[in-house]
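Write out this protein's structure.
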Amino acid sequence: MRLSFYSFLLSALLLFSACGQETNTAGSIDSTSTLQADVQLRLAQKRELNKLRREFINSSVGRSIARYKPIIKKYSKRYGFDWRLIAAQITKESGFRTKARSHVGARGLMQLMPGTAREISKELDIKYIMKNPRENITAGIYHLQKQYKHFPDAGKDNRIKLALASYNCGAGRIFDAQTIARYYRRPGNRWDTVSPYLTMLKKSDWQLHLQVWPKGKPQYGYFYGYNETINYVDNIWTLYKAYQRIL
């Protein structure tokens, strides 16, 4: 995805944050003029935000979101997610390209692996997950909800982030990182404390592994894709926060 797209969304995010800031008028010599200036600033920010919103709605991604919004909203509601989170995830996964395919074989809007698709196909009784965009969305949201269930002790935001990480790299990697976090007496239910330990699942970390696991290696194997997973979660969360403001 082009950097300009992320820059555009970050502009919306930063602008909205600025709109929410309070102006401290305590001790002001002329609180009336300060208040007037604050109102004018907020109106200007609102106009700019509306401009960004219109530009986004007319962009290729904005049009794709509008196209698939009904199916995204339907299954997001069914499985307990904000539909804008799913829209952000699809944007990151495939850029809303229906024929997107990764180097490891993941396919569709939500980039599901063939094995995962076969499993979900049996559970939901749908047959064309890898070919039908709407079935791909349905299956992807369902799969994210399955990951969400793995982390019942986490607060909502952290639970979503852990679920996204699990969606990307598999729940086992997250479980292993949680085990290391707890070894260091750090919370295992917070993404910001668990994510650094994803980097410690390499074979070269064998000395640590000997202290953590009886067999001297991570229970779910070595892991080297930690940067991709960490960036995946962080990028989706940034997109989600922007989408909350412009959609």
